[in-house]
Specification:
single chain, 49 residues, mainly alpha
Length: 49
């Protein structure tokens, strides 16, 4: 992960986003350890299911 983030910074990326699927919340601490923070919660309602 460190190498990927370093490469992205070298490419002058201004924002790096990751998406985490419901049920995979255990990975949150991993991303937090690299400086990521929750900024958006997306809720979804499926129709006709």
């Amino acid at each position: 992960m460190s190498l990927a983030l370093e490469w992205l910074e070298q490419q002058n990326c201004e924002t790096i986003r990751v998406s985490i699927a419901e049920g995979n919340e255990d990975v949150l601490d991993f991303y937090r350890s690299f400086g990521f923070a929750e900024r958006l919660i997306v809720m979804q309602r499926m129709l006709n299911e």
